[in-house]
Structure formats: structure tokens, C-alpha cells
UniProtKB/TrEMBL annotation:
This is Sugar ABC transporter substrate-binding protein. It is found in: Cell envelope. It comes from Bailinhaonella thermotolerans. The keyword Signal applies. Residues 39-298 form the Periplasmic binding protein domain. Residues 1-24 form the signal peptide.
Length: 355
């Protein structure tokens, strides 16, 4: 009897150990679905600092929490579509189980989608959609809404100040479908505003230097007539501002998007009128959640559909001097006052009560 009882105790202990082993790993870790998988994270360029500083680290950190044994393979294409194609081919050859891609060229990325699909590898379009071929999922802020917000905010400012003249529109890259959505949103606010569009430019590769060069030409072409500039992101907005300063012309209200540190400093100083707060943590972590779902054999639910693709589209917030401290520098905000209020901006920060 004692011998039987000992055997039963031993069996129960063994079962408890097995149960503990099954439940001891975080979701996706150990021997669970997706354990040890490789996930590709392919970003488009380094012209915008966000990919190196925020998107990649945040995505990696979230994947590490979800799947400790998974490996994120990160590559940046430096605005070269052919290079991104090579990176994707390399990732497929290395046996990745999911590809998360922010395409350099939204049309060219269709080839990457087809190649991944042939290997049964889910593709998650990140920040920029891939219209020509249906991806498995799309995660982004609502880019059309972004365009409407930055342009509408700037138009309101021009009306408040009774500005005279017209506006320049500096769009993003012509090969970026997200830029096309932003452009559509911009026109939805500018076209009915009563302010003439003096000229419009699609910026190759989102390059700030190209935006600056083009705006410089427009300053000479329309002297005294530029009331404002709707720029599709902070880089092109910064290029526009640099053009006015180089020409020794007063900088009119200029929009932006991405809430990059340099842009926030320009807003604090009064050089840039607005930007968009779209916390990258939201899209980076959402993309990791979706990738992890695919690794586990699940199809994440869609909250929207864009270009026939199941999507999550988050709502952004427009930021000006009036709410910059609240939206970007408060508790849990993406930036700290010490980052923004360096010596050249200390007086401007003090004037806004930012410390």
C-alpha cells in the first residue's frame, strides 16, 4: 500500500512538472506555435530617422515579449526598390515565416508579395499599402486622414491670420501609395478652401533636399504670393523651411507629419506650423501582434479594409505649438523636454512653459 501511494505521488509530481513546462513559456515561446521562427522587418529609407530610431527597435521589443525564441531580421532599403527586392529574396531564402514590409515602391512591392505567397509566407504591409496585389494584412495610421488634418489645420491658420496669396503643396514620393493617400486628403481640405494652389510637387524618395530645391524655385517664381506650404511630412516640411530661410524670406505656415524631433523643435521655435502625432509604438506593436498571430496559424481580425486588404488604421492627432507639450512631451509621450529644449530652443521652450 505504501509502495502504491509512493508511485501515485511520483506520478502526480511528474504530471505537475509537465504541466508547468507546458505553461511556463510566454505566448509563442518555447515549443509553442511559431517558436524559433524568423520574421523579416523591411523598412524603406533612412531619409526619415523614425525607422532606425523607433520602428525597428519597437517592433523587435514587442516580438521579443510575444515570442522570446523568435528572431527579427531587420533591413533598410535606403530608398532603393531594387535593393528592397534583393533583401526580400534573401529573407525568403533564409526561411522567414512572416514578412513585414514598408515598401519603397508600392507598385514594385507587388513582386515581393507574389514571391512570398508562392512560399506561403504571409505579408504584412506596414505604414504604406501595396494596392496592386492583396497583402495578407495592412497596419498603418489613416494616411488620407493625415493629409486632411495637416492641410485643414494650415488652412484654418491662414484664415485666422487673414493671409493673402496661395499655397504650395509638397507631396511625398510618387512611388509610395501612402503618399497618394496623404495627397488625396490634402486636396480634400485645400481645394474647397478658397486658397489657390500655386504649384504642386511630388518629392522623389521623400528627399528633403529635393523638396528644398523645388520650393526655392517657387519662391523666385511667386515672390510675395506664398501664404503657406502643405508639406506631406516633416522631412519635406523641413526642406521647405530651409528654402525660405536661404532666400531670406519670412517663413509662412508650413505643415509636416511624423513628429520627428527636429520638426518638434521647429514647431516650438515657430518655424513649422504643425505636424502629426502618430505614436510609432502603436503601429510597431500592432504589426508585431499581427505577425505573431500569423506565426501561430491565426488570421488576425480586420478592423477595416483598404485596397481589398484586411487592415488596422489608427487615428492620428494634429500638433501645433498650442498642444505640443500635451501631445508629445507629457507623461508617456514619445519625446522628453530635455531632448527638445536644447540650448538653441531653451528660450522658446520657456515661453511655452516646457521644462
Amino acid at each position: 500500500m505504501k509502495r502504491m501511494r509512493s508511485r501515485m505521488i511520483g506520478l502526480v509530481a511528474a504530471l505537475l512538472l509537465v504541466a508547468a513546462g507546458c505553461g511556463g513559456e510566454p505566448p509563442g515561446g518555447g515549443g509553442g506555435p511559431g517558436a524559433g521562427a524568423k520574421v523579416a522587418f523591411l523598412m524603406p529609407d533612412i531619409a526619415s530617422t523614425r525607422y532606425e530610431l523607433y520602428d525597428a527597435p519597437l517592433f523587435k521589443a514587442r516580438m521579443k515579449r510575444l515570442c522570446p525564441s523568435c528572431e527579427v531580421l531587420y533591413q533598410n532599403a535606403d530608398a532603393d526598390a531594387a535593393k528592397q527586392q534583393q533583401q526580400a529574396d534573401s529573407m525568403i531564402a533564409q526561411g522567414v515565416k512572416v514578412i513585414v514590409i514598408d515598401p519603397v515602391d508600392s507598385a514594385a512591392a507587388a513582386t515581393i508579395v507574389r514571391a512570398a505567397r508562392a512560399q506561403n509566407i504571409p505579408i504584412i504591409a506596414y505604414d504604406r499599402p501595396i494596392p496592386a496585389v492583396r497583402a495578407d494584412y495592412y497596419v498603418s495610421f489613416d494616411n488620407e486622414r493625415i493629409g486632411a488634418l495637416i492641410a485643414g489645420s494650415l488652412v484654418d491658420r491662414l484664415r485666422e491670420t487673414k493671409a493673402e496669396g496661395g499655397v504650395l503643396i509638397v507631396n511625398g514620393s510618387p512611388t509610395d501609395a501612402a503618399a497618394g493617400l496623404i495627397k488625396k486628403g490634402v486636396h480634400s481640405a485645400v481645394d474647397p478652401s478658397g486658397f489657390e494652389v500655386l504649384a504642386e510637387y511630388d518629392t522623389p524618395g521623400w528627399q528633403p533636399s529635393k523638396a528644398q530645391e523645388w520650393v526655392s524655385g517657387q519662391i523666385a517664381k511667386f515672390p510675395g504670393r506664398i501664404a503657406g506650404v502643405v508639406a506631406a511630412n516633416d522631412g519635406t516640411g523641413g526642406g521647405a523651411i530651409a528654402a525660405f530661410k536661404a532666400a531670406n524670406v519670412k517663413v509662412p505656415p508650413v505643415s509636416g507629419n511624423d513628429a520627428e524631433l527636429a520638426a518638434v523643435q521647429r514647431i516650438v521655435a515657430g518655424d513649422q506650423y504643425n505636424t502629426i502625432s502618430k505614436p510609432i509604438r502603436i503601429v510597431a506593436e500592432a504589426a508585431a501582434d499581427v505577425a505573431h498571430g500569423f506565426l501561430r496559424g491565426e488570421r488576425p481580425p480586420a478592423r477595416a479594409t483598404l485596397f481589398d486588404t484586411p487592415s488596422q488604421l489608427f487615428t492620428p492627432t494634429v500638433v501645433t505649438r498650442e498642444n505640443v507639450a500635451k501631445e508629445l512631451l507629457g507623461p508617456g509621450g514619445p519625446l522628453k523636454a530635455g531632448q527638445v529644449c536644447t540650448a538653441p530652443y531653451k528660450a522658446a521652450c520657456d515661453a511655452l512653459g516646457i521644462r
